[in-house]
Design brief:
The protein is α+β, with helices and mostly antiparallel strands. It is built from seven helices and nine strands. It has a five-stranded antiparallel β-sheet with strand order 1-2-3-4-5.
Length: 258
């Protein structure tokens, strides 16, 4: 992850890796740390540094200072490199190939760091041999040192050079993007898909209303008894109870007289 190193010079640093080593001594093991850092301004200047210390932060600071001292400028053509090169270091070899705008940087983490800090946005890479991160970064730097701009080649040869293949591909891509931009703006917006109609809710079950014929039949079957009749029917039941009471009272009086 890139971090701002110096805002005045717009320098950024990217830590490629932190490595730990252990030395066995009489009292146990003693650890030390080393770090590999890439520093650049994303305008063609980039450098690498390697630092060692007993702690991680001092090791990174040493590497950043060394990378800042070893920074140098490399030629660029737009957002890519002027031509194809192959860098080598130890058992590693890395091939750097120019790419048209919009391609991006096709590379792993170790190879990507110096290219991004240099300011490249479009570049294709391929590594061969060993995959050691330290050697890959150094192989990339070796390949960048082989880059030559068109102006430099023209001055060395003493002739005027026309557009290179890389410049022609960049112009074609820019022309294509200009043509495609109005088409995208004029393209009508896609109509929204019609919303599915909601399923009709089931109507609540209603009780069937009684027909007038049925209502009349029910009234005729169960006639309501009038209140007067109810009173008349209750009166005869109460009379025998009163008669029984009078008989018991008369019997008790007769016994009292005797």
């Amino acid at each position: 992850m890139a971090e701002m190193l110096d805002e005045s010079q717009s320098l950024e640093s990217s830590t490629v890796g932190v490595y730990r080593t252990a030395a066995t001594v009489k009292g146990g093991r003693r650890f030390s740390f080393s770090s590999l850092v890439v520093v650049g301004d994303k305008q063609g200047n980039v450098g690498i540094g390697y630092g060692k210390a007993n702690q991680v932060p001092p090791a990174i600071e040493k590497a950043q200072k060394e990378a800042k001292r070893r920074m140098r400028n490399f030629p660029m053509t737009g957002s890519t490199i002027p031509h194809e090169v192959t860098g080598r270091f130890g058992a590693c070899s890395v091939r750097l190939m120019p790419a048209s705008p919009g391609t991006g940087i096709i590379a792993g983490s170790a190879v990507r760091a110096p290219l991004e800090m240099m300011g490249l946005q479009d570049c294709m890479t391929k590594s061969f041999g060993s995959r050691n991160g330290k050697n890959l970064v150094k192989a990339v730097m070796n390949g960048l040192e082989q880059l030559r701009s068109k102006e430099m080649i023209a001055s060395l040869r003493g002739v005027e050079l026309g557009d290179t293949m890389v410049e022609e591909s960049i112009e074609r891509s820019h022309a294509f993007l200009k043509k495609a931009a109005p088409v995208v703006e004029a393209a009508p917006s896609k109509p929204k898909a019609p919303s599915k109609p909601k399923a009709p809710s089931k109507p609540e079950a209603r009780k069937p209303e009684p027909t007038p014929v049925k209502a009349e039949a029910e009234k005729t079957e169960k006639p309501e008894a009038p209140k007067d009749e109810v009173k008349k029917t209750d009166a005869p039941e109460a009379a025998p109870a009163a008669e029984a009471k009078t008989e018991t009272d008369s019997a008790s009086e007769a016994k009292g007289e005797e």
